[in-house]
Automatic annotation (TrEMBL):
<protein>
    <recommendedName>
        <fullName>Filamentous haemagglutinin FhaB/tRNA nuclease CdiA-like TPS domain-containing protein</fullName>
    </recommendedName>
</protein>
<dbReference type="InterPro" id="IPR008638">
    <property type="entry name" value="FhaB/CdiA-like_TPS"/>
</dbReference>
<dbReference type="Pfam" id="PF05860">
    <property type="entry name" value="TPS"/>
</dbReference>
<dbReference type="InterPro" id="IPR012334">
    <property type="entry name" value="Pectin_lyas_fold"/>
</dbReference>
<dbReference type="InterPro" id="IPR011050">
    <property type="entry name" value="Pectin_lyase_fold/virulence"/>
</dbReference>
<feature type="domain" description="Filamentous haemagglutinin FhaB/tRNA nuclease CdiA-like TPS">
    <location>
        <begin position="56"/>
        <end position="165"/>
    </location>
</feature>
Amino acid sequence: MKSNIQIPHIYDSYTRRKRQQRFYKIIIATWLATTELLIHSQQSVFAQLKPDHTLGAESSVVKPIDSFSDRIEKGATRGTNLFHSFTDFNVGANRSVYFANPAGIENILNRVTGGNPSNILGKLGVEGTANLFLINPQGIVFGKNASLDIRGSFIGSTANSIKFANGFEFNANGSQITPLLTISVPLGLQYGVSPGAIIVKGDGQGIRDKEDPIIDTTAGLRVKPNQTLALVGGDISLEGATLKTAGGRIELGSVGDHSFVSLTPINKGFSLGYEGVSHFQNIQLSQQAAVDASGLGAGDIQIMGKRATVTGGSRIESSTLGAATGGKLVINATELLEVIGRDSGLGAIVHPDATGKGADLTINTSKLLVLEASGVSTATLGSGKGGDLTVNATDSVQLIGNGTATGLGAASEGKGDAGDLTINTSKLFVQSGGAVSTITVGLGNAGNLIINATDSVQLIGNGTLTGLSAASESKGNAGELTINTSKLFVQDVSQISTSTRGTGKGGNLTVNATDSVQIIGSNANSGVASGLFASSHGGGEAGNLTIKTDKLLVQNRAIISTATVGAGKGGNLTVNATDSVQIIGNGGLYATSGVGFSVTSSNPDTTGDGGNLTINTGQLRVQDGAIVTVSAAGKGNAGNLEINSRSIHLDNNATISADTDTRSVNKDSNKPQATINIRSQDLILRRGSNITTNAKGNNVIGGNINIETDILAAINNSDIRADSTDFRGGQIKIQAQGIFGTEFRDAITAKSDITATGANPQLSGTVQIIIPDADPLSGLIDLPDNLLDAESLIGKDICSKEQIARGSSFTITGKGGLPAESDELISNSPGLVEWATRSEKQEILPLVFRPIERINNEKRNIPNHVIQQAQGWIIAADGKVILTAEAPKVTLQNAGLAHPSCHIYSSN
């Protein structure tokens, strides 16, 4: 077998190549032309910063601070809220607009009533710590150089109004505010028809440098730590934009007509609720856009829309940089979440010097699509625990690499344990380099990988390594990998694996597929096997591999394997398939020690013992070079192989084996030999198929074969062997009702053989064949000694005149029958015999049966006879003759049908 076991990983989604260098050289002429355009733009936009005077004497006032800055003063104060109202509200490029923050004011609320979108091209700020609300139903555009200088939270919205708890609405239609009105904190955002879009542009330079994550960029819109940056409107588009808060909260919400979004004050500003939204709109991140809530403790991010797209190297991230506990990164896309393109992704990372727990990352959607070298991951590079990654996709999850590693991952590269990765969906589809993995390459343990797919899990490699894995590359333990589904399909260079390559323990691989499991290899000579694997390549023990299904198919060089090629013990392989197991075409089921699936992965110095292999199924079929084996090729021992199946068929060079080949090492002969135990109703071997526990090497004894079956048939040079090339032969014990086509022989022949030969005749093993003795008289019953003399009834002329006078009759009708005399032959009658008639009417009395005299079963023990000789007969009312085990006691009133010439008399 020349197939390499490889493990696809996605944990490198947070260690991608360093981002493209910023552009520092700018052509002078281009810069001058751009500057001239910006000057004209400043003048135009400044002219559009217009209060609308709807607040009367409390209307907003714009005062210049210098040639590049303006302050907005006055406004209507109600409690801790300050209201401003503008016909047009824009901030020019390279300009700053600040709101004055009078003492006691906690919220500054600014509405735009003029019917035009707001363009924020420069800096928008608040001089104090108040929160700033900007609502414009027509839309808001933030330019590439837009920024925020706000110590509180910022809520940018295209709502029609802001609602308060006492029923008051601060409406963008220009309604006035009652002077004596007492207003509490904002309750929520009320939207009208066709909410305006929110567009944020940027230079694509806001993504944190992964080589120096502590050093942040200065680009984009950002608020202070523990504050909220929220953009809530119709469609939302981030084009190279940057949204940031250091451990605070970022909200992106895209809502439809007549929506209501609630506002709840929290420690990090505001939490937005979408219970009052009946339908959502779209959110898109492109051109290396960045949404980042990383801080000493990772912040919170919530994305809420119908379709959310992250593409062009864009990233949504909330990472832990210090000792504080991380928050939550939640993506809600009611219809579809797409993550597309190299370096595009979602992430929650604990960075190298951090000790705090990473943020949990949760995706709630109908469909998740991850394409073309993009990734979604949680990880820890430090001592803090990594966050959990959970995907809830009601319809499907699709991970398609198109030849590059793409997918979902949860990893540990440091001392901290990685988080768990859970996928809940109807269909999981992984293709062409797609992968889902949990891994540790440090001291921390890897997380568990759990897949709940109610309909199906499909992995199709198309020539590129594709799969699911839970691995340990170091001292940490690998996680468990569990798949719960109806159908599992793995094909063409796809793998599902748990493994350890260090001293950490490998995780268990468990597949629960209520309908079927199909593992199909590749026709191409890819050098990589498709299959399920639980392996150890170092000192750690491999995990167990368990499959529970109705039907299992392994075909076309596909493999299911537990193996060790190091010091760690191999795991057990257990298959429970209610209906059937089919293994077809050069692949197989393996539990091995020292045996890999390539030249480089085999290791004669392996000291770990191989695991056991158990198959429980209704029907087992192995054919066309396929193999079911436990084996050892190093210093470790092979495990045991046990098969329980109603029917077992091996055809065309199929093999069931527990072979040992340790010619390169000295084996301890006191160690137990490999054993095969088979229980079935019928065991059939055809066309060169074999059951073997052969051994090679010094002091290596042939293994044991125990077969219990009703029927054993071996034909066309099919053998059962427990031979040893260099030492003593093994033991074979066969218990069967019948054996056909094979027999014990001292040496192998061209026929079908049963052998246990050793290195020489004195070292031969033992063969014990047990077939129950056949007793030809068993089941028969002694006939009674006093037999009825048939001739005494038949040989006399019972219808002679003398007999008729005495009332006797005996009738024979139909072709053939009894001879008139006992010494005559039976001959066919050439025709029908006419009835003789009499003129007198005869009285025919009915036949009367008396009940059979029963014997109390409690008084005697009646043996359960296999065959019972008939002791008598009775005639039913319809003329049917019924044979009986005992002669009935009857009083014959007449003979039933009487010849008309015979008189009938009654004795009563």
